[in-house]
């Protein structure tokens, strides 16, 4: 057995200390062996559960073999940062408010890609100042990376039955990021699972997207349908979506490990533009310029105005029937986009006004 290099051990210790100073709530280090996770990924792709996310198949084994994505990679530094915003309206209250529209809590603040990537670059720069040049690349949900599998191997938690990463102390309300490096750093022990016999997330999923423990069918997932899916939302799933217009937090809201989850300390993830508790009719009235202005600097902007209106049309179709809802939908009846028109017509039909 090789004797650990004291210098590398000290560097690993320093990396975690520097990460904490940069606002990361936890930092772990792991190797590149993802053979078991690759097998699970291939089964998932072969079953077609990735839906329209064809890029997941196109990337081949780069996602599960870090050395193919970044040649020379020997270790991955995995980080996480809490995002649950303080002083936001209770998520369940918004979901049950007939006039409101619900957006996933992760989307309410600044675009996390920018926040975490900048911090990872700062961490790498600090490492270079300490040891000299080395090979690295930073990723934040921006490349074919099995981030949850890597985070579990790095000891940041375990993958729960809803396929999100869980921590006994921190729950699941956090973002992940990675620094691929060619340094042979000492690795951390992996996280161990603590879901037990609980199936709260499976029972809570509005569309039955969690088809079995650790098995998510994206084609039924509200997050996929409202964000990733470019076309019409299947009609049989629309009534099940309620007022969820951007993502879905149901599986996290019922998870026992989230009962004591901490709010973020990061100002960038605080609520912007009152989107923690918006009125669906008001959002549906936004023209494209308003949409772009109000969503600037957030992950919501990449959705585009057309899908924004599509999702809101579904929410209004599920809202209680009333003259204001009908008028809002009628105003979009002849929208230039066939995608928007089809969902508006469906919503009007739901209210007996089609």
Question: Which helices and strands, and how do they pair?
Answer:
Blueprint: H1 6-21, E1 26-30, H2 35-46, H3 55-58, H4 66-69, E2 75-82, H5 91-95, E3 102-103, H6 112-131, E4 136-139, H7 147-153, E5 158-159, E6 165-166, E7 174-181, H8 200-204, E8 210-212, E9 215-216, H9 222-228, E10 244-246, H10 250-253, H11 280-284, H12 288-294, H13 305-318, H14 323-330, H15 338-350
Parallel strand pairs: 3-10
Antiparallel strand pairs: 1-2, 2-7, 4-7, 5-6, 8-9
Helix pairs in contact: 1-6, 13-15
What is the gyration radius calculated from CA atoms?
A: 22 Å
What is the total domain count?
2
Alpha plus pi helix count? 15
What's the overall average pLDDT, rounded?
96
Show unreliable segments.
Answer: none
Strand-residue fraction?
A: 5-15%
Gap from first CA to last CA: 73 Å
**How many DSSP E strands?**
10
Order of strands, main sheet, comes to 1-2-7-4
Outline the biggest β-sheet: 4 strands, antiparallel
Structural class: alpha+beta
**Helix fraction bin:** 25-40%
Pattern of helices and strands: HEHHHEHEHEHEEEHEEHEHHHHHH
Shape: elongated
């Amino acid at each position: 057995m090789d004797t650990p290099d004291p210098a590398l051990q000290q560097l690993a210790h320093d990396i975690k200390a520097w990460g904490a100073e940069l606002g990361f709530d936890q930092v772990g280090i792991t190797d590149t062996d993802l053979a078991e996770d690759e097998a699970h990924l291939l089964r998932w792709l072969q079953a077609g559960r990735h839906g329209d996310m064809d890029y997941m198949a196109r990337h081949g084994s780069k996602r599960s073999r870090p050395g193919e994505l970044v040649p020379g990679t020997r270790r991955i530094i995995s980080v996480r940062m809490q995002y649950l915003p303080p002083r936001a309206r209770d998520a369940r209250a918004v979901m049950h408010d007939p006039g409101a529209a619900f957006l996933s809590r992760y989307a309410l603040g600044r675009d996390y890609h920018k926040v975490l990537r900048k911090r990872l670059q700062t961490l790498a720069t600090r490492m270079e100042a300490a040891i000299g040049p080395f090979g690295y690349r930073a990723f934040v949900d921006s490349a074919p990376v099995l981030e949850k599998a890597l985070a579990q191997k790095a000891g940041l938690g375990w993958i729960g039955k809803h396929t999100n990463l869980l921590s006994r102390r921190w729950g699941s309300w956090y973002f992940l990021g990675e620094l691929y490096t060619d340094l042979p750093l000492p690795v951390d022990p992996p996280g161990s699972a603590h879901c037990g016999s609980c199936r709260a997330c499976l029972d809570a999923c509005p569309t039955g997207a969690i088809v079995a423990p650790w098995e998510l069918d994206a084609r039924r997932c509200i997050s996929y349908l409202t964000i990733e899916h470019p076309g019409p939302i299947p009609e049989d799933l629309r009534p099940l979506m309620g007022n969820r217009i951007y993502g879905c937090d149901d599986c996290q809201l019922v998870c026992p490990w989230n009962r004591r989850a901490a709010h973020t300390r990061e100002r960038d993830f605080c609520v912007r533009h009152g989107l923690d508790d918006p009125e669906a009719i008001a959002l549906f009235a936004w023209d494209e310029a308003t949409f772009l202005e109000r969503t600037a600097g957030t992950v919501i902007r990449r959705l585009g105005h057309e899908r924004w209106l599509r999702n809101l049309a579904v929410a209004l179709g599920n809202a209680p029937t009333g003259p204001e809802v009908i008028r809002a939908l009628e105003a979009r009846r002849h929208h230039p986009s066939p995608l928007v028109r089809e969902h508006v017509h469906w919503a009007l039909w739901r209210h007996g006004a089609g």
